[in-house]
Every structure is written in C-alpha cells, then in structure tokens.
Structure prediction request, 415 residues.
Amino acid sequence: MKDIFEKLHERMGPLGMHADDAHGYYTFPKLEGPIGPKMNFRGKERLNWSLNNYLGLANHPEVMKADAEAAQKFGMAYPMGARMMSGNSDYHEQLEKELAAFVGKPESILLNFGYQGVLSAIDALVDRHDVIVYDAESHACIIDGVRLHMGKRFVYAHNNIESLEQQLKRAQKLVEQTGGGILVITEGVFGMSGSQGKLAEIASLKSKYNFRLFVDDAHGFGTMGKTGAGTAEEQNCTEGVDIYFSTFAKSMAGIGAFIASEPHVIKFLRYNLRSQIYAKALPMPLVIGSLKRLELIRTRPELKERLWTIVHALQNGLREAGFNIGITTTPVTPVLLNGTIPEATHLTHDLRENYNIFCSIVVYPVVPKGVIMLRLIPTAVHSLEDVEYTINAFKSIKSKLDSGEYRQEKLAAFN
Prediction:
C-alpha cells in the first residue's frame, strides 16, 4: 500500500517529468508588459507569436475603456452568487441574446469558462443510453467530457468522413437497442493543425443517420466566415450545427464562453449544466467588456481583414521559403520540423535568446515522435515587417537544425 503523495513522485506524467528543467522557460513562461506583438520575456523584448489575441482586441482603446468603466461602476464581485440563485442581470441576458443572433441561433447560454463549459455540457446532454462519436484530435475539454460519459463512445479518424460513417453505423445499431440518441462532436478549427473540421460534410450525413452535431469553434469565432460568425458560416452550414460553442479567450481576448442552440436545448442546459448552476456568475466587467468586444467584431470588419492580411503574408511566405505548415486553412499556423526533444529545446532557446522571437513549441506526446511544431498565432496587430523578420529567422534556425547544430552533444558549444 502506498501513500497517494508518494505515488505522485513516481508518475509526474509526460510533461511533468521535465518540470525541473523546463519550468519558467519552456513551460509556464512569463510574458510581461502591455499585450501585443512585442512583449518582454526575462527582461528582454521579444516578437511574440503566442497569444490568441486574433483581432487585437486585448488592448483596443474602446475595449479597455469599457472594461475600466464597468469595473469602476460595478467592481469585480457583482453580481454575487450563481445566476440561478442571485447572480442574474440584464447585461448577462443581453449578451446571450446578441451572441445567439450573431452566430445564427435562437438562444444561447453564458459559461464562466470554456473548458469546464464544454466538459459539463457533454455530461448534461447525454445519458448512459446515448452514444458519443467524436473526432480523434478533439481538444482536451472534449476528451474529458467524453470520459465522463457512462454510455458508449466511438472515436473516428481525424476529419475522415469514411471513418465517421463507420462509427455512425456502429452507434446507430447500438441506440436501436438502447433507445438512446447519437451526439457527434468535432471542432470548427483544430487548434494545433489549423485545419477546419468538415462541418458541412458531417451535417450532410444527417440525411442517412439520426444524430445531433456539437461543434467547438473556439478558434473559428471571430476569424472565420464572412462576418466572423465562425466556421459554420465559412462552410455555409450554420443550420446543420445543432450545438455551437465558443470561448471568449481567443478572438474576444477575454474570459468566458457560450453555447448557442435551439430554445429548449438552452433551457435544458440552463437548468442542468452543473458547472454553471453551482458557480458564481461572470463578474459584470467581463460581461460588459464582452458586449463591447462583440460590438467591435460585428461593426469593424477591418479587424478581421487586417488579421487575414497578416495570415496570408505569413503562411504564403513560409510556404515559399520551403517550410511545411501542414494543411491549415485558418489563422493557426504550425511550422513542422524534424527533430528530437533536445533539439527542440535548443532550437527554441536560440530563437528566443538570439533572434528575440517567442512562439509556442509543441513536441511529443502532443505531436508524433521526431516532430517539432512551432505554432504561430498571427494577429491583426502584427506587422508585415514582423512577418518578414520571422520568416528570415526561421530560415536560419532550420539551417542550423538540418546541419545538426542543435544536437545534444553540441549543447556545450551552443551555450
């Protein structure tokens, strides 16, 4: 028999096992100063490609004014209590109505956080008689929600419609016996690869199979579609998405999230979504600030246009320079290189210390062994000069990687 704490020393996990070496630099780094494309890291200014501030709203003067005025008027405590008991307000309901209208759904419900909201929504929507069918590369919040499911769940190969159909056939046979239903879950934009979920193709399968479609569009809201209403708008299949989710942590540069759907679905969630029923309501400054952010997304199309100017310049420039950026059709820009984890750490150190570029590094187990992913998040407040400098820096580090300069045995010389 072991003490629980003793076991933790023995199983720190695939990321935690490197904590002593990585903490504060590769993991849990501290970016300081005003949010933007240039921020300080360890006392030195870096060109920053690691913030999900797609439309540049984090430091937009109108947003900062709305945040400050709401905080001055209400403080951070109001409303006090869960919305069901004592924490509801006209502002919360106004934001729900405006969000639903923007994404083309009748109603929506506010969530305090995206991760817990998705997890809790999945838990609420299905019971042990139902079957979940989900994409293999779904975000961790979806995976954790699926883990809570007491019924069957089938995973299909990423964005593979043939695989999805195979799993739908299995699910349909099962629910014919249990009397349950089928919930298909995917993402609008996959946050690592930048690929779009095949929402229109999935929705078209409803003519053959009886299921409901849940879409996590965290990276699509504000960036995709003619008006920025998301990936379903981009693919012209808004009606085919039954449950639409997005967070405020990406294009809105805030805190919170929402789910939009049919009125009776939202009513059900309002009275059964445990992560909201038993949680304090979103503070008023976050709600009023979100109203201003949504207003700017709706009325300032130049923000999204500027974002895509930077996206196209960055992605086209990387491709022309011979870099593999996968199949992204969204702002998410992965740069895929071949190398080991030690090489990845040395490369990242060089990029930050000698080229003053800060971007996210992704290695195994998030990507396959032997792959190094540098994930870039372009924003509307980056410049074309930032793009040109970054591409030239990446050419240099790739040359070093290919020549073996970042290999472990050369670490002493590198430092």
In short: The chain has a mean pLDDT of 94.
